[in-house]
Amino acid sequence: MIDIMSYTEEECVAYAVAKGESGYRGKQLFGWFRKGITSFDEMKNIPRGLCDIIKNECLLAGCAAVKTQISSDGTRKYLFRLHDGEMIESVFMKYIHGNTVCVSTQAGCRMGCVFCASTINGLKRNLYPSEMLSQITEIQKDTGERVSNVVLMGMGEPLDNYENVIKFLRLLNCEKGLNIGYRHVSLSTCGLTDKMERLADEGLPVTLSVSLHAPNGNARKQLMPIANKYGYDELLKTCVEYEKKTKRRVSFEYALISGVNDRQTDAHELGKRLKGTLCHVNLIPLNQTERKVYKSSEKSHIETFTNILESYKITVTVRRSLGGDISAACGQLKAETADG
Ligand code: SAH
After folding, report:
1. 287: CA distance to ligand 1 center in Å?
2. Is the dihedral angle over the CA atoms 272, 274, 277, 283 positive or is it negative?
3. In CATH, 4-57 is 1.10.150
4. Does the CB atom of residue 289 touch ligand 1 within 6 A?
5. d(CA 239, CA 277)
6. Maximal C-alpha separation, the chain
7. pLDDT on residue 320
8. Any ligand 1 atom below 6 A from CB of 287
9. Do the Cβ atoms of 75 and 328 come closer than 8 Å?
10. pLDDT, tens digit, for every residue of 15-34?
11. Are 197 and 246 within 8 A, CB to CB?
12. Exposed, middle or buried: residue 324 (CB in 10 Å: 0-12, 13-18, 19+)?
């Protein structure tokens, strides 16, 4: 089956022409797909014959909400079913600077970070570009509000689904689509350096966030198996090159785990490593998952950690956790069952 909902405008035109229709029909198709239709029958101005062909050979790869939870802070978490029954979660957050959707890029994840719930059952499959877009269009329909910012920080490792994520970003940015500027998009990666290098050459000015979570390679390996494949020095070097090439500041995410990576010595080591680079460190007080052995740092430790990093002239922010009461915060998303 063809994933026609992920086609670019040119691909839609080529498809229509191949079916003996005008290129204009292809443009009409593209317009419908960008609206986030949930049935091909919604395409009222497309001739019956073409519509039947599409129904026969194409997939309507979107998301259907099976459960919505609303947090006391207004954050909404959606459990979506995909066309083949796989489940993913997405989160809608309201910030002063606009409404943000946290998009999942894979059903499950194979990166194995020890503190994250998304990876517990491994990777089920990559999401299509259309399925990433559909998370946003469905949330816009449900809330009746426009989404202006997108963070690729839901389930999955975006750079492990590289081609589909890049296509998604281009469709997201397109004028006939959601028309969301690249500067309003953040992509978070656990640090696949070869893919980060490729991303730097795409010419997409999205903000790159890198999940660092440790002050050195050995400590990082304890938390993130991927650190065995891509070394710490190599990762930092890639970030510096990314900044040089794109002129965009890289943001480092650092989840503070009590007694594991939140000691004063850790802060000094990290400070020394990052001193003089253009980066920004975003500290994330650890959110609770089923892996109860890991606990969030105490408030006073977070403050001390922040002060030490600042003494190395590093810009530090502490991420405000949203949706914790409905397990919608960073690292808490998983493929729950509808009644789970
Ligand atoms: N695969 C991408 C996106 C993951 S989600 C990545 O690794 O960057 C976004 C952020 O939440 C990542 O920095 C991730 O490491 C972090 N995270 C995962 N589990 C968490 C938890 N329990 N508490 C706080 N942050 C967590």
Report:
1. 9
2. negative
3. yes
4. yes
5. 10
6. 69
7. 84
8. yes
9. yes
10. 999 999 999 999 999 999 99
11. no
12. middle
Cα distances (Å, whole numbers) of residue 317 to 1, 14, 115, 280, 285: 46, 48, 21, 8, 11
Distances (CA, A) of 80 to 89, 115, 190: 6, 23, 24
- Domain coordinates in residue numbering, the chain: 4-57, 63-339
Q: Which pLDDT tens digit goes with each residue over 99-122?
A: 999 999 999 999 999 999 999 999
CB of 91 within 6 A of ligand 1: the answer is no
pLDDT digits (tens, 9 = 90+) for 200-245: 999 999 999 999 999 999 999 999 999 999 999 999 999 999 999 9
- Ligand 1: which residue has its CA nearest to atom 20? 331
Contact 328, 74 (CB under 8 A): no
User: CA–CA separation, 229 vs 157, rounded Å?
Assistant: 15
* Phi (first) and psi of residue 83, to 5 degrees: -60, -25
Is residue 62 within 8 Å of residue 38, measured between CB atoms? yes
CB-based contact 122:108 (threshold 8 Å): yes
Q: How far is ligand 1, taken at its centre, from the CA of residue 211, in Å?
A: 7
Angle ∠(255,103,316) on CA atoms, nearest 5: 30
Q: Mapping DSSP to helix (H, G, I), strand (E, B) and coil, where does residue 208 land?
A: strand
- The pLDDT mean for the chain works out to 95
Instruction: Identify the pLDDT of residue 290.
Output: 80
Q: Which residue has the tokens 């990559």?
A: 126
**What is 285-327 written as a DSSP string?**
EPPP-S-TT--BPPHHHHHHHHHHHHHTT-EEEEPPP--GGGT
Query: Do the domains spanning 4-57 and 63-339 agree at the CATH topology level?
Result: no
Is pLDDT of 338 > 50? no
pTM exceeds 0.85 for this model: yes
> Which amino acid is it at 284?
I
Residue 337, pLDDT score = 57
Beta-bridge mates of residue 255:
284
User: Span 63-339: which CATH code?
Assistant: 3.20.20.70
